[in-house]
Amino acid sequence: HDDLVPRLSYHNFETLRDEFLNVLARIKVPKIQLFWHLRETPYSERFVSVNNAKVLRPLENIPSNTSFSEQVERLRAERAKKNMSGINRVQLFIPGKIVHLVDTSGNGNYIPYWAPKEEFNQLEISKRMYADH
Known about the structure:
Layout: H1 10-26, H2 31-38, H3 45-55, H4 67-85, E1 98-103, E2 110-115, H5 129-132
Antiparallel strand pairs: 1-2
């Protein structure tokens, strides 16, 4: 479980958006069906793997001839062009040494360790994101 704030950056949001759009494009069942599955708790790792295989196409099999995929490609091309021309090319990192507190048991017992800045180069979505912050 990680704190959201150190991971907030323009680059990380762009990456999260692209990953989310890829997942949407990979879904091969009605989206409402997935919504109801997401409400079921708790999930085991095995359930998630099996369920993902049932509802998601492999990454290499994303259809490219749909209206959605064409819109996504236009968005990505536009964003890439803007990103190359502006300040958005600069990646931001947390300054100084970082002590990362990790709840290894899920019950609020945190263990500190020195973390490299690269460990915070993406947003991680979890159920406890808000509570951990």
